[in-house]
What does this fold into?
Amino acid sequence: MQIGIIGTGDVGTTLAKGLKRHGHSVNLGSRSPEKLQTFSSSEGIPVTNFEVAASRDADLLILAVKGSAALSALDLIGSERLRGRIVIDATNPLADAAPDQGVLSLFTRPNESLMEALQQTYPEARFVKAFNSVGAASMVDPILTLVDRPCSIAATTPRQRKRFRDSSNRLVGKWPTWAAPSPPVPSSHCLFSGVSLGLGKTSGPTPSNCCDGERCASLVAYGPEG
It folds into this structure.
């Protein structure tokens, strides 16, 4: 697959290297691509601006910027480039404030979701929540214990569940999954879901016999029908 990654922090560069190692063609998008030339040369991964990384040649987009910069990054890409595209949202709505007694602050209010806001702003895109609760060190071929392997795919319609399951299978391999219905958008559950290239885990409830010890992935998918 041709994959455009928006963002060149730890998450973006980790996914870029992992996806390339798994045989995918990757293009990294940065606000300042000239600062990533050493990385680009050493890893053999092109680094361009957001608009080029999100070109129509990409089969899939991954949004891997700071949560507070997510909307402005999409604004730079533009609605026409996002129309009908699958966008994996790896962002979290973390506030700039220092942790309070070890607890991170969010800039969203209770019962609000950053991805919900992105979906409402760009309804023509198809957002999928993934990678946002998996540390960068565990995003590619991690070694997890059996208890870390439940899986689920939540989507608005059966057609969406099949579409996003197929996309996940093409991206990281075919794993057993449990497909569950979900509301169109308004759910805080999409704040916390994780998927890794190799093994994945989810913090939400899943059937006890979901994976039977097999390798799995977790996705939460929202967006328009189609």
The helical segments are 10-21, 37-43, 50-53, 70-77, 79-82, 114-121, 158-172. The mean pLDDT is 75. Residues 2-221 form a domain with the Rossmann fold fold (CATH 3.40.50.720). The longest strand covers residues 2-6.
